[in-house]
Amino acid sequence: MAFQNAYSAYQKNNVTTASQGRLVVLLYEGAVKNLTGAIKLFEADGSVKPQNIEQFGKFIQKTQSIITELQVSLDMDKGGDIAKNLMALYIYFNQQLLDASIQKNKEKLNTVLKMLSDLLESWRTIANSTANAPAANIPGALNIQG
Question: How far apart are the first and last CA of the chain?
Answer without folding.
Answer: 48
